[in-house]
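REQUEST ID: PR-0412
SUBMITTED BY: lab tech R.K.
PRIORITY: routine
TASK: structure prediction, single protein chain
INPUT:
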Amino acid sequence: MSTPTLAPGFATPESAVAAPTSAAWLALKGAAAALQPLQITDGSIPDTACHAQARAHVDTIVQAIRALAPVFPHDAEYLAASVRDFGRWAASDFDVPDFLDSLTAFQPQQHRIDGIRHLVVFPMYTQNGSTERHVEALLVEVIWPEMIERLETEYTNRLFVSLRLIDFTPGYDTNSAVLFPETVAMREVPTFTWGAIFQDREAARFRRVTRAAAEITKLDLPAEAARMLEDQALTERTFVMWDLIHDRTHMRGDLPFDPFMIKQRMPYFLYSLEELRCDLTAFRESVALEARFGARDDLDPVESDLLTHAKLVQYAVIFDRIFRFAVTGSRVRNYDGLGGQLLFAWLHQRDVLHWTDTSLAFDWDEVPAAVVALGEAIDELYWRSIDRPKTAHWLAAYELVRSVLTPHPASRWARGLSDEILAGPPRGYTDAVLDDEFPLSMFYEALEKKMRPVIESTRGIRATDE
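STATUS: complete
OUTPUT:
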């Protein structure tokens, strides 16, 4: 990786690169990991016999933060607040930690500069990783190439931060590929101003899983898609572009409900449709960008880069959805898995995806229109549901999924919900949904068995592993 060029006033490239091997970072990382077995799920340490040991670990963390702070002058306010939060936590005899002050001071979205690094230390759980709100420490690096800087002026998303994992504590030696402020232990919930995704981990998983799935299914990958399997940096930039557009879509469009469904309990297939809607919007916009830039012969270097990645986003959405999402995780309300199944079946039923003679093939010229059509079907569902009661929207959403995927034979939803449930509160509808309402098809049952070791091998994956 080339040494980044940073703006004046930010960490020098030399000190930023040196941080992962510094004695201060290694001490901080070790102390944070040593604290974790002492903490219970909410992050507190109720066992007073452990307090002396915990204070020693916190002292090490505080000293290490102070030693590392000069390497991260752009995070000076946050790191100073972190020291105070750790001191207050120790003074409380390790009650439930409250790191609201340091979380409020941490504003990575204000420093979207390619190559700039951050030191991140919070008591938090890690999505798709650990459910324990324990002290975690990370060194991360921003991925923000010039083409994304240009693209963000059109697809504005001031909350989006794209990161690369440099080093981390055990909570991120998992499947977690995000850093979200809502996971931090704090006394009250502020207005969140950023959300981060580790595109290096997403890209590395994509490359390993897609390579294996293409081999298993005998898929002849298009040349552009094959390039991603050989080039980690190219794939990282592709995922940044995908996620930039995906993330902003949650708040845009004809939305019949809170798109994040915060504090709402509802059938899991609604989460499937929302996440798929955002991915298909990224796909559709990439098709539009490819058409726009492809029609010109006077592109500047950044526009040429955008043209290349617009095509790659389309391959990434399809292959990540149908190969990784569909067979990753349990069969208990797996909404991302369902979204992958839905995309595969939609393309198969429109005769642009073929599983014939135990080989997978696509009619690539016809694929974009078919994928966009699925996005339009979801958009129409949302638009119509603005005028529908909540439960009527749920029923309509189920019919959309059911029109493509076959429900479980024991499904009460498929047979028709009883009058008692239909006339009752929404929780009755949700309770009637099976954990695996739409089981894997025979194709996916066979693929999952072959892909299981590959999927498991991506736990804690780093860019350097590929």
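NOTES: The chain is about 50% helix and 10% strand.
REVIEWED BY: pending
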